[in-house]
Design brief:
Number of strands: 0
Structural class: mainly alpha
Order of helices and strands: HHHH
Radius of gyration: 26 Å
Number of domains: 1
Low-confidence stretches: none
Shape: elongated
Mean pLDDT: 86
Length: 80
């Protein structure tokens, strides 16, 4: 665990107090940890490339089964 002495603005201090209260955290260190985790999820999460999305859509199209009408479906699965 790293210890640090930091200087923050009054606004940042209020935000840390709000985060601390909202998540029921013990101290501002935990609030900073929580903010860092949230930031990591939003900023550092791998982004899906548009080319990969196209590939996924192509795969999805290959897995669909056309059954036609409701009657065709009932015949396919022997449903009365």
């Amino acid at each position: 665990m790293v210890k640090a002495i930091i200087n923050i603005s009054d606004e940042a201090n209020r935000i840390l107090n709000i985060v601390k209260a909202e998540f029921g955290l013990k101290d501002k260190s935990e609030a900073i940890e929580k903010l860092a985790e949230e930031y990591e999820e939003q900023v550092f999460e791998p982004k899906i490339k548009p080319s990969y999305l196209k590939k996924l859509k192509k795969i999805e199209k290959g897995r669909t089964v056309e059954i036609g009408t409701l009657e065709d479906f009932k015949k396919m699965y022997n449903i009365d």
